[in-house]
Amino acid sequence: MRHGKKVNHLGRQTAHRKAMLANMACSLIQHKRINTTVAKAKALKQFVEPMITKSKEDTTHNRRLVFSKLRQKDAVTELFRDVAAKVGDRPGGYTRIIKLGNRLGDNADMAMIELVDYNEIYNAGKAEKKTTRRSRRGGKAKPAADTATKASNEEEE
């Protein structure tokens, strides 16, 4: 029985699994998106999101904790400098998994995992937020006020 064992071993020994996740996390931080299998993407999401949370507060202790997992100085530097600045106001959910279909060779279920704030396609529509408010009363008075201000601006010129 495997009660209470939530870690997906991914068919690897412990050291191999940790090294693979560290390498994948470094690639994700440097390239902002990578293609992998769905199982590895889900394991990577659990591995990398706590590190991104730690990177929001730039202390020596947090840098050492993240470096002990990632083991690449360049990736740690980029995580604390660039990625932390982009995700500073986000309370969680820093990565997104998009399923891509099956791989041709072995029919493995493939996915793309990416950092959410770095995808301009998804963020383009959400960047513009309307701040106008419509009310039932006085809706016609506002355009009249706009024409009055335009007329006064034309008189000043």
Question: What key attributes describe this structure?
Answer:
50s Ribosomal Protein L17, Chain: A; 54% helix; single chain; three-stranded antiparallel sheet; 13% strand; 157 residues; alpha+beta
The first-level CATH class name? Alpha Beta
- Rg value: 24 Å
In CATH terms, the superfamily is: Ribosomal protein L17
What is the domain tally? 1
- Strands of the widest sheet, in order across it, are 1-3-2
Topology:
Elements: H1 14-31, E1 33-37, H2 38-55, H3 60-70, H4 73-86, E2 95-102, E3 109-115, H5 120-127, H6 141-156
Antiparallel strand pairs: 1-3, 2-3
Protein name: Large ribosomal subunit protein bL17
Pfam families: Ribosomal_L17 (PF01196)
Family: Belongs to the bacterial ribosomal protein bL17 family.
Report on this structure.
The chain is of the alpha+beta class and 157 residues long. It has one domain (14-127): Alpha-Beta Complex (50s Ribosomal Protein L17, Chain: A). The chain contains six helices and three strands. A three-stranded antiparallel sheet has the order 1-3-2. α3 (60-70) crosses α4. The longest helix is centred in the first third of the chain and has 18 residues, at 14-31. It is globular, with a radius of gyration of 24 Å. It starts with 13 loop residues before the first helix and ends with a helix.
